[in-house]
């Protein structure tokens, strides 16, 4: 029954439109800019092994075949057809797509078409602010356009997302910055940046978070330790706790993305704060054969209504496949095991599986259930 | 054999004396002041599922029956009779009861009677200080009465407990505060507080911890991340390490309560410091179907003579039941598995089970073994 | 096949040359200076149970026999013969031996002879600096001799190691200290220390780390929480992250030793930084029956080319045995389980097993494969 469950992928990116060689494909597996260490390859990771387990059969090859065979077959079918076959195998009926990454990735419309599914947009705050700054003349103009852009984006997006939590931990200071502080930071930023210059001012990042909170849309915060560029301590769960405390009772929900290896802390926060939810994405998709064990840890303290499936995939449709397959497998193993032990009833297990796979996301983001019902 | 082991519940509270509706019962499951998030319920947690697994059969119903059926049956039997049936199923022969919580909970005598067991008192330091302050005139009087009250309490109590570790992390500064500091803090507190005003001054909290250390009774410290009111970083194991270092060699033992998700750190501290013990309570009782996995993690570094069973239960006798059942199940599964693998001998497994269930607590708190032997 | 895998033990110490009584043996099990808590024994730990499981049969006794029987038999055979039997059972073909511990432990040559294996030296930086200081006259002399000694050691050693990471967290400030700072610190140290006085100045420790980095040999950093003398926060993975950032791209590799309970953080760092490797030693050897579970956690994010077996053993050859046995068992269980589930192919599992057991260490340290091939 879990095998046929439809999924809402509540956080992912688009895929590349170009054919990929072995090296380019491998780099995307690691999710890194740089190469693997001499004598090693990112294929020798749980993600690499999971891709080799699940994807070759979808393109007509043996599971675990050598990467070079797989990529040859992928090129033979073409990037469009292989992407279509891969995405349509996932059972995802709605993709929520973060469109804010640089690079040539497909948008929500293309994902929806390739995957024969619905897709909605998640707006990433930092690039939105950078586009606004490129078009602004002066501080007052920048700040009013920022507010307007966040407001406009909220009309069509399902959520906002920010990586400020990881890259600028102290930006998660609990309170919104004072107006004078924001004006000063905006003036400084406009002075020092060139066109396209990145937003890395902690005060402006906090200002953006609070603008987004004002929209009422769920706010997805990147946490955890995945990002090498995160300053030391940026993944500290104590920072997230302080921000969760400051935003309690405002009526806007927070979704913690990527908390691993602090996923138990994230789960605990979902039990303490009514407005805090936790994403399962990378914690499962990147741990492959270990996903069931990690899922089980998250299920220790989290209320079952507070957890959300995602793939966290980007660039390779193989990662969308791995996210979905690994999640289903983990759910069957963990919940099935508890039913077999008598710890959970079968009815409860089915109900909880549906909640985590799609129901919680539908409720949180106000999505219909595919039969026209919200 | 583990199924019939008698238990010392080394940290719990009393139960409510009134009949409970579905909403009140659910709120106690979450251990929270506020409600669950919209569209969710605290019944959909490991604790909720564990209650539904273990308790209905004790009142003559099917396991996993709907919560409303269970509560109807509970009211039909009455709060006294259902409490008696529940508590007597636990196999606990001695309850150590923290009597310092506000609210109408039964005391050690009532728990002993309902559970057909022994019960002893754990004195919580903060409310003791607040009662003393209500009756004191001036700083000198407050400080001498505090010392006297701690001394008097030590005559009958088996242990002291404090939540200062969680709510005021920096209060765990290693050294005792200087006398002048304590006098100043006491003066300030008496000035600003009204009758019943809570103790939240870090200097006075440290002073209280050191008064309790002077008594020689074991001191139970609330650690870990369970409490939403904990300041950011309050659960940091580094704070506990510093306090353990400062108190080594004094002759007073420390018991770390509720360290989850830092339970491996707590276990490690028990291996480093002869005077540090770790409680298993909430780490097992709140994780339900996952308790065996969490217990196994704690058993990685902790010497087996340093671990203590508890339920950590409060308000609902169902939570005393869950604590005991989940612990027994976890012990059977973990130790039984190691015996089956040949990693442990059966004799050792039985001996360790008895130590953790009751023997370590009897030795630490100077309890008799129920046959009149200390 | 894993049962017969040859191992490179990439971090261990020598063994004691004297006969041991029950008390001395027990103290070494705990790895502690002090005694166990009253009423407890270090035999009642995972390490103690693992010794009793694996070692008695190697000396002709039943597994799990009482410690006193085992020690009697050990004395009967003599420390040399029992050491030989124990070490030769491990399947280790190359020992990398940290020779910098005080106390009468055998050196690489003796280990090699007793174990019928190769042995190479790891040079510990702190005692090297202390020996240099004993022989130096003045700051300039000390600093030039230090540089010379590190350079000379690099000619024969396979790696350097330092405990500065644990004992002096802030010493891991990312950048090398300025020359004037180093001169001042050296002057102060020479003034206050007596002969043999320990190196605990954070500036000099950082200077030593950067001298070692300049040699190009892999640098092994003690991390994690094993050491009671570590200052609070010394095990914080954020400190290691900052040092890894600062040393990226220099061409020198770092090996994180003993990161447990932060082993998932260490594994993550190996995935982010091409020059960071992680040791498995104490995380497995000290957790005994739980080693498979801990190994599986490390295998979540770490690229398989970045993990290195070790025993971390010191003083007792029993600990070398436990390290090797527990590792093999864990590898069979974890990788074998994934093959049985279809998550990994058998070919991949064999290849990864060989990499972690020996291949990665051979590549990193430039060791031959025992058939004369580098």
From TrEMBL, chains A, B, C:
The Amidohydrolase-related domain, residue ranges: 165-367
One GO MF term attached to the UniProt entry: hydrolase activity
Key words, A-Z: Hydrolase
Keyword flag Hydrolase: yes
Keyword Electron transport set for record: no
Pfam families documented for this protein: Amidohydro_2
Gene3D superfamilies: Metal-dependent hydrolases
Protein name: Amidohydrolase
């Amino acid at each position: 029954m879990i095998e046929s469950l439809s999924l809402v992928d509540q956080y992912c990116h688009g895929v590349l439109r170009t054919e990929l060689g072995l090296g380019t494909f491998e780099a995307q597996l690691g999710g890194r800019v740089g190469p693997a260490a001499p004598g090693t390859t990112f294929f020798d990771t749980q993600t690499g092994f999971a891709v080799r387990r699940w994807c070759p059969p979808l393109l007509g090859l043996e599971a675990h075949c050598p990467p070079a065979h797989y990529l040859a077959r992928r090129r033979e079918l073409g990037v469009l057809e292989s992407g279509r076959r891969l995405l349509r195998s996932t059972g995802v009926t709605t993709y929520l797509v973060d469109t804010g990454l640089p690079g040539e990735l497909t948008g929500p419309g293309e994902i929806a078409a390739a995957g024969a599914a619905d897709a909605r947009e998640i707006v990433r705050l930092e690039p939105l602010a950078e586009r606004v700054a490129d078009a602004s003349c002066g501080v007052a103009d920048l700040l009013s356009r920022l507010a307007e852009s966040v407001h406009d984006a909220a009309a069509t997006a399902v959520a906002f997302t920010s990586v400020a939590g990881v890259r600028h931990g102290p930006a998660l200071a609990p309170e919104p910055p004072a107006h004078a502080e924001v004006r000063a930071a905006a003036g400084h930023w406009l002075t020092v940046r060139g066109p396209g210059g990145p937003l890395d001012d902690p005060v402006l990042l906090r200002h953006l978070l609070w603008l987004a909170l004002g929209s009422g849309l769920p706010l997805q915060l990147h946490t955890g330790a995945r990002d090498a560029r995160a300053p030391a301590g940026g993944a500290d769960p104590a920072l997230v706790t302080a921000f969760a405390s400051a935003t309690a009772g405002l009526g806007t929900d927070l979704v913690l993305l990527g908390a691993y290896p602090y996923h138990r802390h994230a789960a605990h926060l979902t039990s303490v704060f009514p407005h805090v939810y936790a994403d399962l994405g990378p914690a499962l998709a990147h741990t492959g054969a270990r996903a069931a064990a990690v899922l089980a840890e998250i299920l220790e303290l989290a209320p079952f209504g507070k957890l959300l499936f995602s793939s966290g995939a980007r660039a390779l449709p193989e990662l969308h496949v791995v996210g979905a397959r690994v999640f289903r497998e983990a759910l069957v193993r963990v919940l099935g095991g508890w039913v077999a032990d008598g710890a959970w009833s079968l009815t409860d297990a089915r109900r909880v599986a549906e909640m985590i796979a799609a129901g919680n996301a539908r409720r949180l983001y106000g999505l219909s259930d595919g039969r026209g019902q919200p």
